[in-house]
Amino acid sequence: MGMFDHIYCEIPLPDGFTGKMQTKDFDCLFATLLIRADGRLMIEDCEWEDVPLEERPNPEFPLLGARRAINKRWRDLDFHGDFRFCGAREPGGQWHEYGVRFTHGALESIHVIEEAYPPLTVSAELKAVPMTATDEIGTEAGSMIAEPREGLTLGRKLDSILTALPADRRRIVESRAVELITEAMRELSI
């Protein structure tokens, strides 16, 4: 799974898909983006407040749900460039991926990408990395990207790292990543 941003599209997609979608081509901090019906790309801005401990969803992980968004509003990104987004109606379902182009803030095109997310190839070096102690996660993380491709965004690189981990270790790393991001957001007051 990895980190990503949510994206919604008010414009009908070329293949008629209407499920949940995400992109890894922005900051990958679980932001919400919207392609409005008028062809503008918007991002949901908000302010944050601390959630009292007794209101947090899981006492075992007190950092999860430690902040909540208030005063939500949409901001026009005036985006210029290309990005990809994708989704599936259900876990393990058919994957839909799209390329989109904005020119000086206005939507120019949306097209289906036929071969969505080719499978990652894991190098022999990566397969030989011992996967035993959770305290080794940080030192191993740098070697987790197998055959890095040029032009990958931070979110796609992180997804490559997480995909290379066994499922039990992936959950540990994802949980720690959420904790670190929450901590950093608190320090930066965002």
Which keywords apply here?
alpha+beta
The proportion of strand residues reads 25-35%
Oligomerization state of this entry? Answer: single chain
C-alpha-based Rg, rounded: 18 Å
Helix content: 10-25%
| Mean pLDDT over the residues | 77
Q: What topology, given as strand order, has the largest sheet?
A: 5-4-3-1-2-6-7-8
What does this structure look like?
It is globular and about 45 Å long. The chain contains four helices and eight strands, in the order ββββββββαααα. 22% of the residues lie in helices and 29% in strands. It has an eight-stranded mixed β-sheet, with no helix packed on it. It is of the alpha+beta class. The two termini are 24 Å apart. The longest helix has 22 residues, at 167-188. The protein has helices spanning 124-127, 137-141, 154-164, 167-188; strands at 5-9, 21-23, 32-35, 41-50, 67-76, 81-88, 95-103, 106-112.
Helix and strand topology:
Elements: E1 5-9, E2 21-23, E3 32-35, E4 41-50, E5 67-76, E6 81-88, E7 95-103, E8 106-112, H1 124-127, H2 137-141, H3 154-164, H4 167-188
Parallel strand pairs: 1-3
Antiparallel strand pairs: 1-2, 2-6, 3-4, 4-5, 6-7, 7-8
